[in-house]
Structure formats: structure tokens, C-alpha cells
Amino acid sequence: GLAVVVVGFYLRALRWHAMVAHFNPAVRLRDSGAAFLSSFALNNTLPLRAGDLARTFMFAEDLRTPPATLAATLLIERLLDAGTLVLLLCLGLWMIPADRLPAQWQTWVQQAGFVFALLALAGLLALFLLPKIMMWAVGHFAHTPKGAKLQAVLRQFGSAFGLLRSPALLLKLLALSVLSWGLEGCVFWVVGQALNVALPGYAPWFALSTATLATLIPGTPGHLGTFDYFAVLGFGVYGIERSAAASMAFVVHLLPWLPVT
């Protein structure tokens, strides 16, 4: 399980490095990787997403990249993660065993999966429109001194989304997103094997999607409680008994939290 966690974090660090290197080809993976892992360690121990702020501002000088550009890459990273996880959630909704749902719910759940999948794809497409929307909004304040400064920062922020205009880079980012989160689901499966819990089919990846999407809800440092509760719910949909699901959720939460922190 730890080996899979290490590979998964490496792929996610590689994804962020690809975005930063688009603007500063001289940046080394060692430096961007240190910033990446440090931000996770801070998020695991401090409230209010302190690690994200650190990755944007504290490491800007080391990476020789403007904070506005780093903030844009961080937003793209989060949107790629959310889109991938929603698609995993949709697959899980379509694969719920028929005997786990009342007959009148089956069609509704499948339709919900289809709608969520469309929303995820629409969200990824919206990445291309976000910079233009922001520049249009800030244009109303351009005539004031503060507005002009804000417009300059937002223009720098918006220009960072230009990396998505490269089909090769975009495909690389999407592939790394799918691979890294696919491996994260393998951690759930490995923990189930270690605890001698039989996990049916797609259950590990469905629990991964419910638990990780729930971390978007503001909560404690390291998402203690939020992650675990929704992991138990995800396992429960596939028929895993609550105490076994809670044991798996605890170990799965500890595996990536402890080494990075």
C-alpha cells in the first residue's frame, strides 16, 4: 500500500511540475516536488488550506515563477482532480449491484451518474473560458489605480491557462490525473486485502471518489472525520459492513497522511 501511495504522489508531483515547467523550463522536479509535498504536509496539520497558500507564495522565489501563475496551476490541478473524481463517481453509480438498490431507484441513480459525468466534462471545458470571464469582470475596475493593478495580476493569472492550449500537454495532464487517482483506488483495494475484507468489483474506486470529493467540504486539518465518514458511506453502498468499512477508511487515511506529513 505504501509503495502504491509513493507512486501515486510521484505522478501527481510530475503533473504539477509539467505545468510549472511550461512557464519556467529551468525548474527542477526536485524543487517543484519539494513544494508539492510540503503543501500537503501543511494542509494535513494546519487549517484553511495553509499548504495551498504556501505553495503559491512561499515557494514562488525558489521556483522562479510568479505567485499568480502558481495559483493558476494550483486551480487547474484542483479542477483536474475534481473532474477525474466525479467521473470515477459516475462509473461507480452505474456499477452499483442491482440487489443493493430498490428497483425504483435504479433508473434514477443511472441517470444521476450520466448528469454528473456531463457536469464533470463541462467543468473541464470551462477551464478554457475562465480567464476570459475573469478579465471581463475586472475590466469594470480598470479605470481605478487599484483596479489596474488587479487587472495586471489577473491577466498574469489568466495567461497561465494558456498551457491548456497545448493538446500534448493537456493529454499528458489528463493521463497523469487518471493514472494517479486510479492508483489511489488501488490503495483502497490493497488495504481491503490486508484486512481480509472482500471488496466487490468497483467498490474501492467508488469509496475513493466519495471520500476524496468530501474533502472539498471545509473541515479539520488533514480532513480527519470528513474523509473517513464518506469513505464508509461509499463502501456501504457496495454492501461492506460498517465496522469493516471504518477499519479500512482509517488505514487508507493513515497511509498517505503519515509519510508525507
Describe this structure in words.
- This protein has 261 residues and is mainly α.
- The two termini are 17 Å apart.
- The protein has helices at residues 2-23, 29-45, 50-58, 60-63, 67-95, 103-138, 145-159, 167-194, 203-214, 226-237, 242-260.
- Helix content is 78%, strand content 0%.
- Helix 2 packs antiparallel against helix 3, helix 5 runs antiparallel to helix 6 (103-138) and helix 5 (67-95) packs across helix 9.
- It is built from eleven helices and no strands.
- The longest helix has 36 residues, at 103-138.
- It is globular.
Instruction: Report helical residue fraction.
Output: over 70%
Structural class: mainly alpha
What is the mean pLDDT? 88
Count of separate DSSP helical elements = 11
Rg, alpha carbons: 20 Å
Order of helix and strand elements from N to C terminus: HHHHHHHHHHH
Give the strand content: under 5%
**Main sheet record:** none
- Number of β-strand runs: 0
Oligomer: single chain
Question: What keywords describe this structure?
Answer:
single chain, 11 helices, 78% helix, 0% strand
How are the SSEs placed, and which strands pair?
Blueprint: H1 2-23, H2 29-45, H3 50-58, H4 60-63, H5 67-95, H6 103-138, H7 145-159, H8 167-194, H9 203-214, H10 226-237, H11 242-260
Summarize the structure.
With 261 residues, this protein is mainly α. The protein contains eleven helices and no strands.
